[in-house]
Specification:
With about 400 residues, this protein is an alpha/beta fold. It is about 40% helix and about 20% strand.
Length: about 400
């Protein structure tokens, strides 16, 4: 039988789901299967609240650990050594495991953390730790035990039939598995905020689809490719999704012709929301998602957000609403979208910017201006010309 590497995957928040726990675990296991589908010979199985991944030794453990840790719902991952549940075998395996660690790292102190998940095992957890610790000390006299701040924690997880030895818990993003919390349509610009908003909602178990507005030829094809690159990064976490591309220029030009200059920003934003709502309805989405942050720009004041919300009937999720910009940037850097977002390509929001946009719009005034436009025909026209791009995982 081919030898395989073992990875223990912990489910984090999924473990708190009570009677629904099996459904969430099953969905998480399926998400992991999809995330590692490009590798051959990988097994993913659920057992006693954990998920075990077995992979051929030819598959890089570091790459596989990275892919698994990015799956929403995964709290942590541990590359592990599997051994028969018999104390002498566990002790021998622990010494072998420490020998390999010792050859790669400078380790002066260690601590054994034993867990007896198999309550029929005749030795209690503290005694398992003592016995294995003594074996390791005998094999490596230069080592010392430090129970407070060791260089290495040696974990021993004793279970029925098989036990597991490992030394690290690599953090995942946590959250909930994809598909356990409906579907949302994110308004995806080329900026810093909206990709982070999409990531955060997907982390809560939401499947996503996206719409991007451009103003070609005022905005370039390179600006659109930038958004496609951002979408591809998101797909590495969220899985494949569709990106709807809409040219907003015909609507922007009508607003410029017929409406007050200071209302242009809020009127354009309302049209974006109306168009997004139509796309969402046609694609089974339950809500819209934006990267708006309270007070960041003129269209994101409290008054402007109220007027924008009034344009649609669908719920609008704004996961970044109270975040500081520094926090958003930090998250963008963490998920790998920041460097793409700051590339200096224009987006449709920078076209026809008013000198002094209204920051405290009144809904009655905005609706009055909107009535000067044939909104239904304008929306229908741009939707008839939209394009759809399939975004795949990198």
């Amino acid at each position: 039988m081919e030898e395989k590497n073992i990875f223990i995957v912990r489910c984090g928040e999924v473990a708190l789901k009570g009677l629904n726990k099996p459904y969430f675990e099953k969905t998480l296991a399926e998400s992991i299967r999809k995330a590692v589908a490009r590798f051959d010979g990988i097994e993913v199985k659920r057992h006693e609240g954990l998920i075990f991944v077995k992979a051929p030794c030819a598959v890089s453990p570091d790459i596989l650990t990275c892919e698994i840790s990015k799956v929403f719902g995964v709290d942590s991952v541990s590359p592990a050594l599997e051994v028969e549940t018999e104390l002498e075998r566990i002790s021998e395996a622990a010494v072998l495991y420490m020998s390999e660690l010792f050859s790669r790292n400078v380790i002066k102190t260690f601590k054994v953390k034993a867990k007896r998940a198999d309550k029929d095992f005749p030795v209690l957890s503290p005694d398992i730790a003592k016995i294995i610790g003594a074996k390791v000390l005998t094999a490596f006299p230069s080592l010392a035990v430090d129970v407070h701040d060791p260089d290495c924690n040696l974990y021993v997880d004793v279970r029925k039939g098989k036990s597991y030895i490992y030394d690290e818990k690599i953090s995942g993003f946590g959250g909930l598995p994809a598909g356990t919390n409906g579907k949302g349509l994110v308004l995806l610009s080329g900026g810093i905020d909206s990709p982070v908003a999409a990531f955060m909602m997907a982390r809560r178990g939401m499947m996503i689809e996206a719409v991007h507005f451009h103003s070609f030829p005022y905005t370039s094809e390179r600006a659109q490719r930038k958004v496609e690159e951002l979408a591809a990064v998101l797909a590495s976490y969220c899985g494949k999704f569709r990106l709807h591309i809409v040219n907003l220029l015909p609507i922007q030009e009508e607003i410029v012709k017929r409406c007050p200059e200071d209302e242009m920003t809020i009127l354009i934003r309302r049209f974006m929301m109306k168009i997004a709502e139509e796309i969402a309805k046609d694609n089974g989405c339950d809500m819209l998602i934006t990267g708006e942050n309270l007070g960041q720009v003129a269209s994101q004041t409290a008054g402007a957000i109220v007027v924008t919300n009034a344009a649609v009937n669908m719920p609008v999720m704004r996961p970044l609403i109270a975040f500081d910009k520094a926090d958003i940037i930090k998250k963008a850097q963490e998920i790998g979208t920041f460097d793409i977002s700051i590339e200096p390509y224009e987006d449709c929001c920078t076209v026809f910017l008013p000198k002094h946009p209204v920051t405290k719009p009144r809904l009655s005034d905005i609706v009055f201006s909107e009535d000067k436009l044939d909104a239904c025909e304008l929306i229908k026209s741009v939707l008839n010309n939209k394009k759809i791009i399939a975004i795949k995982q990198k």
